[in-house]
Design a protein that fits this description.
This protein has helices at 13-27, 34-38, 42-55, 104-118, 133-141, and strands at residues 4-7, 59-65, 68-77, 87-95, 123-129, 145-155, 158-168. It is an alpha+beta fold. β6 (145-155) and β7 (158-168) form a beta hairpin.
Length: 171
């Protein structure tokens, strides 16, 4: 499978939103309430992504296969208060479910890490739901390690735990 990576633009917001919603509905089934997942809206997510891409605080890379966007990754400076300016953060990484386990997520992660290294960051962190064992296994396989940090969040009225993973960008 040939995969190409390019930076997202404002006009990609709806495509990003569609992948976001479809990925959540597949990945979080059994973790988040079904009614919450079924209520996710491409239109609402698209508006959110238009604003985010316009502000430009996050960089978003898209993965293409046969000229169709099949995944994306969003990253930037780390938002965690216990990390300094040498730390970056992957805020989101999603691939269409029918393209899972084909190396697309790893390609996106490698491209983001290269971009972060070029920007001068030394480390990258990300947060993942503790119950999302598939994603946790993926992050571990591509070089991220749980750093024992966790936080509680609420999604759809359900309390969930996120755990932080980290990776060095320095060779």
């Amino acid at each position: 499978m040939t995969v190409e990576i390019r930076e997202a633009t404002y006009s990609d917001a709806e495509t990003i939103a569609r992948i976001h919603v479809l990925s959540w509905q597949a990945a979080y089934r059994g973790i988040m309430p079904d009614e919450f997942l079924e209520g996710l809206s491409v239109e609402a997510r698209s508006s959110m992504w238009q604003k985010s891409l316009q502000i430009g605080k996050l960089k978003v890379l898209l993965a293409y296969s046969d000229e169709v966007v099949v995944g994306w990754i969003a990253f930037g400076a780390c938002r965690d208060t216990d990390k300094d300016e040498t730390w970056a953060e992957v805020e989101a990484l999603y691939v269409l479910p029918k393209f899972w386990r084909r190396g697309i997520g790893e390609r996106l992660s490698n491209s983001a890490r290269a971009s972060l290294r070029e920007a001068g960051f030394s480390f990258v962190a990300l947060w993942v739901l503790s119950e999302n064992h598939r994603a946790r296994g993926f992050y571990h396989r591509i070089g991220f390690h749980h750093d024992e940090s966790s936080k509680c969040i609420s999604v759809g009225g359900v309390p969930l735990t996120e755990i932080r993973y980290r990776c060095s960008l320095v060779n």
